[in-house]
Amino acid sequence: MLEEVERWLGARSWSAADRPLDRLLSAKRASGIKVSVVLPALDEEATVGAIVEVIRRDLMDRLPVPLVDELVVIDSGSSDRTGEVAAKAGARVVHRDDILPRVPALPGKGEVLWRSLLVTSGDIVCFVDADLRDFSAAFVSGIVGPLLTDPDVQFVKAMYDRPLGAESGGPASGKTADQGGRVTELVARPLLNLHWPQLAGIVQPLGGEYAVRRSLLERLPFPVGYGVELGLLVDALHTVGLDALAQVDVGVRLHRHQDGLALGRMAAAIYRTAQLRLSRTHLVRPELTQFERGPEGFVPHTYPVDTVERPPMLTIEEYAARRVA
Question: Which of 173, 129, 158, 168 is CA-nearest to residue 40?
Fold first, then answer.
């Protein structure tokens, strides 16, 4: 298995600089492929506008042929000015609850990504988290590139340094330089190495920046919560095989980090997503109890672990009808 991972790393890992923008535009013009970029957003007014502005400036408005045809922010119930800021910067903003209203929306990132397929039309769908700082257009062009230039590639993850403690934009150093992905290193990577060793070469399995052919996405189930990235990656492996997956180095990712309790809930969702795919049987206890110190000692707080998955979009009649139309 190690030999297979090493072979894959050599054949399916690139840098964003390997495919210059002019090459991507030529490939896009020749193929007629359309690209949609989706930003799932919840209370991200501080960062979403700058991300939209960079994508519009560098990948849409100033190019003879736009690399990105569609830029959509899905607002999943923000209490701040996320939608207003995104729209002013040039994105089309759609509220989560306005998509497929006959199916009541559930909280969670995966829910938003699943619903985004109904309001986008690109042959390639590129997901980008809305909390990134010092955003570079390479986060989009880098991961879209292999899909435009290699017909055998279907799913591309971004890889990057993820410094801990650099939310404000200042450089991290020493032991914190690459420790931002704590749930990745403590939960996701061990699970993948033990149970799906073919995916051991994926540098950022839980990263929120990845581009996928719509023809694959619409065939996959979507965990509604934080487990969506792991679920899509594992299911893509089983659906199209390892050589259809790839990764591209896009540099450094700066974003807001979560506290320890939030990381615990994320870890539980990741474990649950993996467990479901391993067993496809009942969950023993889909809840997580955590503790916070109060005036009189430790106080337990119990949270549900995401246990719902949305079915492949191809099974949704509204989506099927749109495809026919």
Answer: 129
> What is the DSSP secondary-structure string of 47-94?
THHHHHHHHHIIIIITSSS-S-SEEEEEE-S-SSSHHHHHHHHT-EEE
The model's pLDDT over 139-175, given as tens digits with 9 standing for 90+, comes to 999 999 999 999 999 999 999 987 765 444 444 444 4
Residue 145's φ and ψ, nearest 5 degrees, are -50, -55
Fold of the CATH domain 2-175+199-256+311-324:
Spore Coat Polysaccharide Biosynthesis Protein SpsA; Chain A (3.90.550)
Sign of the Cα pseudo-torsion (90, 94, 95, 96, in order): negative
Cα–chain center distance at 246: 14
Mean per-residue pLDDT of the chain? 89
- Which ranges of the chain have pLDDT less than 70? 164-180, 255, 257, 280-286, 291, 298
Residue spans of the domains in the chain: they are 2-175+199-256+311-324
Distance CA 18, CA 193 (A): 28
Per-residue exposure over 269-301, b if at least 16 CB sit within 10 Å of its own CB, e if not: bbbbbbbbbeeeeeeeebebebeeeeeeeeeee
- What percent of the residues of the chain are helix, what percent strand, and what percent coil, each to the nearest 5? 45, 20, 35
Half-sphere exposure of 53 (CA within 13 A, CB side): 13
Distance of CA 292 to the CA centre of its chain: 30
Contact between 301 and 290 under an 8 Å Cβ cutoff? The reply is: yes
Q: Are 140 and 68 in contact (CB under 8 A)?
A: yes
| DSSP at 151 | T
Neighbours of 200 (CB within 10 A): 18
Q: Which whole-number Å values give the CA distances from 191 to 146, 160, 177, 280, in the listed order?
A: 27, 20, 23, 16
pLDDT tens for 232-241 read 999 999 999 9
Bridge-partner residues for 287, per DSSP? 304
